[in-house]
Amino acid sequence: MNEKETTPSYLELSNQAYGIVVDAFASANQRGLDYWRSVWEIVSRPYSSTAVDSNVRDNFERANQIVALSIGELQANGQRTSEVVEKLLSVTGNLQDSYVHSLRGLMKTGISNMNFVRETTELQFGDLAQRLDQIRPASAVSAN
Q1: For the purposes of burial, counting CB atoms within 10 Å of the CB of 47, is it exposed (0-12), middle (13-18) or buried (19 or more)?
Q2: What is the model's pLDDT at position 115?
Q3: Global pTM?
């Protein structure tokens, strides 16, 4: 099995991470706008009466609605943050796997290059030794 087929590229992983971040940002902005729209709807709702005790009750009810809305929003934010972190950790794990495969490929290439250099050097030394052996008998005969 080819490592290229099983390991996503850095570009694919970067695109995934970018997509996750952009999606999280857009989702957070949309939730924030929805939250403040809901708060505005609660706060801007007209009072049902002009009586003081009715207005006090209505204000407590509105405050209770805003607190409940805020708690729900905080829970949703926590859940969404957890999901985003999980996705980013997954991409980070894939990035680490890709990095390890790249290093493994570099090491294999380096070892292959070293073996080629060793074999070439052995051949060159062998050729040099043969030439020296050919030159020695000729020089030994001429010296006599």
Answers
A1: exposed
A2: 92
A3: 0.60
